[in-house]
């Protein structure tokens, strides 16, 4: 059955069939060939029970928040402001790519949206100032992955929904690793540019008054993040309610900077509908596939396989990490999460590991999948924004950051408190 699902998934995705449809088709196949019962009779109830959950309402709100910030021009002003603050480092403007991605990750919740935002704003600057296209575009692709780690994260919401884990606790757990990854990307960039200065472009130092004036474009985003996360942990709002507050705050910021118009609102709403529909189709398709797989006994089959290896719990975690790295080469990231979570997470919990810790480890591995070929979505997003050059340039530029993510995954395994300290210290 595992072979059928793996081969079928790769074959259908290679035909460019939408991921959500692929998951439904695989579910029908499992029902037809591996189940003794007509599982499709439960399809209607399964789809309704999955979609009828208040937690999922947070997804369109966070998507809309990011759309408003992008389409109102806030992204461009934020990028220009960060350029004035950190372009003195070796690597110059490349650091602004990572820093801008970090700030927008703290509001948008989507890696693809974050990568698209920064790429659209930054790529013209790379051509104008003569930066190495590989490193510059690779940093954007890597920085965009922070959108699913730094709260609020749509992927963490989906993980919490599927595992019945506290979403506020997951948000707290993702904060330190997310900031740690951002700093690791900056350090990696600085090291590369100290070894090869010609890759980083010109280091620029701005006068203090100019830097202070630039803060006017950074403070609103910081305040918005503080309001969203603060209302959750003060107990004043659920994640869904905080997302709605965030949308209102984004509209206020856009209005202050003169970015609100009928056209902007229309584009933001249409973009939200498209992205949310895609996410929900994937979630529903994966829920049906997981239902058929569980009913057909895949969970027991996989558990027996791992137990048959005779490994210690730690070695089993390394095997699971290896599985995610390999699958990440071929499977779209959200699909990879929702397909594997109901099977893998119970095994991990049975081994004695914390589901919140494993959720953060999984997100790091999913981030790696976003910038590894051939299905790394962020690579295609950045290449699309470049509008010239070879796809291979973006892939090569992202490789150092893949290594940084792998080191973070190993650090999380060696020191679980990197993810678990804040959830233990702060009780929302």
TrEMBL record:
<comment type="similarity">
    <text>Belongs to the TRAP transporter large permease family.</text>
</comment>
<protein>
    <recommendedName>
        <fullName>TRAP transporter large permease protein</fullName>
    </recommendedName>
</protein>
<feature type="transmembrane region" description="Helical">
    <location>
        <begin position="50"/>
        <end position="70"/>
    </location>
</feature>
<comment type="function">
    <text>Part of the tripartite ATP-independent periplasmic (TRAP) transport system.</text>
</comment>
<keyword id="KW-0997">Cell inner membrane</keyword>
<feature type="transmembrane region" description="Helical">
    <location>
        <begin position="242"/>
        <end position="266"/>
    </location>
</feature>
<feature type="transmembrane region" description="Helical">
    <location>
        <begin position="359"/>
        <end position="382"/>
    </location>
</feature>
<comment type="subunit">
    <text>The complex comprises the extracytoplasmic solute receptor protein and the two transmembrane proteins.</text>
</comment>
<feature type="transmembrane region" description="Helical">
    <location>
        <begin position="215"/>
        <end position="236"/>
    </location>
</feature>
<feature type="transmembrane region" description="Helical">
    <location>
        <begin position="278"/>
        <end position="298"/>
    </location>
</feature>
<dbReference type="InterPro" id="IPR004681">
    <property type="entry name" value="TRAP_DctM"/>
</dbReference>
<dbReference type="GO" id="GO:0005886">
    <property type="term" value="C:plasma membrane"/>
</dbReference>
<keyword id="KW-0812">Transmembrane</keyword>
<dbReference type="GO" id="GO:0022857">
    <property type="term" value="F:transmembrane transporter activity"/>
</dbReference>
<feature type="transmembrane region" description="Helical">
    <location>
        <begin position="7"/>
        <end position="30"/>
    </location>
</feature>
<dbReference type="Pfam" id="PF06808">
    <property type="entry name" value="DctM"/>
</dbReference>
<feature type="transmembrane region" description="Helical">
    <location>
        <begin position="304"/>
        <end position="327"/>
    </location>
</feature>
<feature type="transmembrane region" description="Helical">
    <location>
        <begin position="394"/>
        <end position="422"/>
    </location>
</feature>
<keyword id="KW-0472">Membrane</keyword>
<keyword id="KW-1003">Cell membrane</keyword>
<keyword id="KW-1133">Transmembrane helix</keyword>
<keyword id="KW-0813">Transport</keyword>
<feature type="transmembrane region" description="Helical">
    <location>
        <begin position="135"/>
        <end position="158"/>
    </location>
</feature>
<feature type="domain" description="TRAP C4-dicarboxylate transport system permease DctM subunit">
    <location>
        <begin position="7"/>
        <end position="418"/>
    </location>
</feature>
<dbReference type="InterPro" id="IPR010656">
    <property type="entry name" value="DctM"/>
</dbReference>
<feature type="transmembrane region" description="Helical">
    <location>
        <begin position="170"/>
        <end position="195"/>
    </location>
</feature>
């Amino acid at each position: 059955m595992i072979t059928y699902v793996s081969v079928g998934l790769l074959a259908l995705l290679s035909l460019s069939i939408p991921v959500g449809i692929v998951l439904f088709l695989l579910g029908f196949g499992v029902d037809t060939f591996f189940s003794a019962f007509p599982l499709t009779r439960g399809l209607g109830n399964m789809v309704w029970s999955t979609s009828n959950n208040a937690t999922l309402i947070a997804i369109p709100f966070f998507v809309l928040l990011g759309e408003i910030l992008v389409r109102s021009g806030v992204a461009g002003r934020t990028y220009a402001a960060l350029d004035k603050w950190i372009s003195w480092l070796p690597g110059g403007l490349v650091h602004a790519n990572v820093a801008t991605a970090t700030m927008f990750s703290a509001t948008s919740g989507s890696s693809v949206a974050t990568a698209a935002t920064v790429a659209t704003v930054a790529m013209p600057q790379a051509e104008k100032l003569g930066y190495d296209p590989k490193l510059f575009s690779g940093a954007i692709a890597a920085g965009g992955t922070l959108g699913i780690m730094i709260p609020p994260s749509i992927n963490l919401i989906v993980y919490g929904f599927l595992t019945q884990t506290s979403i506020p606790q997951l948000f707290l757990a993702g904060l330190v690793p997310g900031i740690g990854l951002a700093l690791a990307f900056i350090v990696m960039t600085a090291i590369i540019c100290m070894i090869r200065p010609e890759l980083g472009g010109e280091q620029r130092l701005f006068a203090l008054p100019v830097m202070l004036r630039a803060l006017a474009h950074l403070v609103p985003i910081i305040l918005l993040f503080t309001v969203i996360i603060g209302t959750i942990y003060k107990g004043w709002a659920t994640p869904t309610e905080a997302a709605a507050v965030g949308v209102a705050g984004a509209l206020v910021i856009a209005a202050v900077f003169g970015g609100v118009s009928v056209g902007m609102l229309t584009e933001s709403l249409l973009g939200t509908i498209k992205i949310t529909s895609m996410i929900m189709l994937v979630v529903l398709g994966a829920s049906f596939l997981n239902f058929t797989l569980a009913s057909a006994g895949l969970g027991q089959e996989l558990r027996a396989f791992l137990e048959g290896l005779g490994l210690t719990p730690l070695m089993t975690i390394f095997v699971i990490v290896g599985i995610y790295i390999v699958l990440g080469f071929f499977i779209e990231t959200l699909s990879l999460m929702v397909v594997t979570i109901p099977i893998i997470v119970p095994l991990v919990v049975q081994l004695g590991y914390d589901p919140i810790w494993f959720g953060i480890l999984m997100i790091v591995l999913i981030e790696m999948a976003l910038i590894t070929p051939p299905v790394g979505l962020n690579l295609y997003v950045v290449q699309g924004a470049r509008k010239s050059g070879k796809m291979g340039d973006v892939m090569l530029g992202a490789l150092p950051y893949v290594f940084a993510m792998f080191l973070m995954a190993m650090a999380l395994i060696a020191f679980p408190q990197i993810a678990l300290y804040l959830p233990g210290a702060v009780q929302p």
